[in-house]
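Dock zinc ion; give full complex structure.
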Amino acid sequence: MSDLNKKLLIEYIDGIQEELRDISDKIWKNPELQYKEYYASNLQKEYLKKHDFSIDELEGMDTAFVASYGEGKPVIAVLGEYDALDGLSQKVSITKEPISDGGAGHGCGHNLLGTGSMGAVIAVKELIKLKKLKGTIKYYGCPAEEDLSGKVLMIKKGFFDGVDCAFSWHPFD
Ligand SMILES: [Zn+2]
């Protein structure tokens, strides 16, 4: 990718930064356990629809979805998560301050992971549109990352068929 394209992508993400931050904060404040991520997945679906993505609901998985833009190959997927963990309820603070004792909370920042991936696909979509590029960009809304089952089920059900490559990211020490 040329430096010019990288510059366009970065500038575009800077432009929607506040909206992405708002979505991430909302998901942080409404933590949902695996396969119950209705609030988060709906919030992301609405935002992606607003940015011209078409949404496919995935049969048998209420809180999983695929958002697509573009046509033909390559088909590039970017994966995002939004599930929380039990017992990690936490205010935005550097000390331990639960919002509700024993409630759910985001352990490894899935509020950021899904939202960041969503920002990436929206920026790539802008580039496809602007440069009239061939190819399809997809955002995979993936439930239940915390027990490592969501994507496995999605693969088994064939939801990744036809994807040429997929990107995922996660914090680690
Ligand atoms: Zn995680």
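Observed: The longest strand covers residues 61-71.
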